[in-house]
Amino acid sequence: MIKLFLKSTLFTLLLSAITVVSKAQIGYDYAQYDLGLGGAFNTVYGDAESLKSTPSIAVSFNYNQTPYANYIFELQSGNLEGGSITSATGRYFKNSYTALVFRGQLQAGEIMDYSGGGIMGGLKNLYLSTGVGYVLNDMKKINRESYVLEYNDGTPFYTGGLNKSNELYIPARIGYEFKFFNQYNQPSFKLDIGYQLNFDLTDNLDGFTAGKNKDVWSQISINLKFALGGVTSYRKTL
Given a cut of 70, is residue 9 above it in pLDDT? Predict the structure, then answer.
């Protein structure tokens, strides 16, 4: 009786191990941590009349609660620029900025059934993301006086604001994450393409405080993400 019990127990354990290995081989496993490197083109919609597109770079650390529910900590650095000294107001700025961002990201695969493939299989990596950001602004160049407009006393029209400021903003992002798998069917490399609008909670992103609307800036970005480890399993195939 004891030998039979031991054989049954060993058989059960062996069968469980085989099941776990089989699940890993058909694509249930993923890394919980990624390192991301990327860049973006930025456009500020603020108080300057004309728009310019400027570059920035970013490094990020990603925690993947699941393959389709992610938390991103990101550090950005770059330039924001806009306006022209020949415009009516004369507003021109060049902002050398640094930003810290935390975002939660939900991909469609977390809430949809994509087991049948097809369109659903293609949509599973589409995501929405939002969170909070903190930006440090440093105006390297700024023009506040107009060469066209004057006040009644003949002095040039002037736009006030801050040359340095620290501000909170709300990022709102839509994007798509292409996943590339290694020999163990685990996502080891990802290509993230996104469009993001950042809603400034004050009005000094461009160095000018004018009008009723707060500043907004957009980003078109590409990020490369590399799996770091912490491999665990998901409830569905990837």
Answer: no
